[in-house]
Amino acid sequence: GAVVSQHPSRVICKSGTSVKIECRSLDFQATTMFWYRQFPKQSLMLMATSNEGSKATYEQGVEKDKFLINHASLTLSTLTVTSAHPEDSSFYICSALKRTGGNTEAFFGQGTRLTVV
Amino acid sequence: GEDVEQSLFLSVREGDSSVINCTYTDSSSTYLYWYKQEPGAGLQLLTYIFSNMDMKQDQRLTVLLNKKDKHLSLRIADTQTGDSAIYFCAEIALSNDYKLSFGAGTTVTVRA
C-alpha cells in the first residue's frame, strides 16, 4: 500500500487561535486529497475536496473561511482551523487518491485529534 | 453515509468467522472499500473490490459483491481479538466525483 502521513497526531489549542494540520502522500503523487471530520462514535463526514493547484471544493455547511485548505503541491495538503472554538474539537482525517493506470485507491492519514480549550 | 448503510454492531467468538454487511445505492459505484479503524487511530485500508468483480480474497479476508442487489460483504475467517475494531464500508462513485461515501461503521467485538 501507499503511505499518507498526517501531522500532528494530537494538538491542544486555546480558543481563538489557529491550528494547521498537514497531510502528505509520501510515496506517490496525489492531485486529489480529501479532508474528513469524525465525531465520537460516528462515521466520517467529508468536509472538502482538495485539488492541487486550484481552490478546494467545500461540502454544504462547511465554512470555507474557517477551514482553510491549501493544496500547494502534489504531495501536500494543509487544513487550517482558524479562530478555533471548543465545538471544533474533533478527529480530522485526510485521505489521498492514488491513481495507477485504471486503479484508484484512497489512503488515509492517521488522523489528528484536535482539542480546543 | 446515508447512501451507504451498515449494521452497527457485531459480536463474534474468537476463532469463528465474522461477516459484515453493507448496502449502497449508487449504481455508478466504481470501487468499494473496507476500512478498519482501531480506537483513536486513523483508517487502515483492508481491501477493495472493483465493481465488475464478484469476489476478492486476501488471506483471511473475503469480499463478496452482489452488484444487482448493491450488497457488499466482508468475511473475516478465524477472527482474532486483534480484529476488534470499527469497520467502514465505503464507495467511490463516478456520479459523485470520486468522493468516498462512508457507511456509519460496524463495531466488531471479538469475545474469548
Could you walk me through the main structural features you see in this protein, from its secondary elements to its overall organization?
Chain A has strands at 4-7, 10-13, 19-25, 32-38, 44-51, 57-58, 67-73, 76-81, 90-100, 103-108, 112-116. With 117 residues, chain A is mostly beta strands. Chain A is globular, with a radius of gyration of 14 Å. The relative contact order of chain A is 0.33. Chain B is an all-beta fold and 112 residues long. Chain B has no helices and eleven strands. In chain B, the strands form two sheets. In chain B, strands 2, 4, 5, 9, 10 and 11 form a six-stranded mixed beta sheet that branches. In chain B, strands 1-3-8-7-6 form a five-stranded antiparallel beta sheet, with no helix packed on it. In chain B, a hairpin with a 2-residue loop joins strand 6 (55-58) and strand 7. The model of chain B has no long low-confidence stretch (mean pLDDT 88).
Mean pLDDT over the full residue set of chain A: 90
- Structural category of chain B is mainly beta
| Terminal-residue CA separation of chain A | 37 Å
Our estimate of the beta-strand percent of chain B is over 45%
Let me know the average pLDDT of chain B.
88
Approximate strand percentage of chain A: over 45%
Assembly state:
heterodimer
Largest sheet of chain B: 6 strands, mixed
Secondary structure: helix percent of chain A: under 10%
Alpha carbon gap, first and last residue of chain B: 32 Å
Shape of chain B: globular
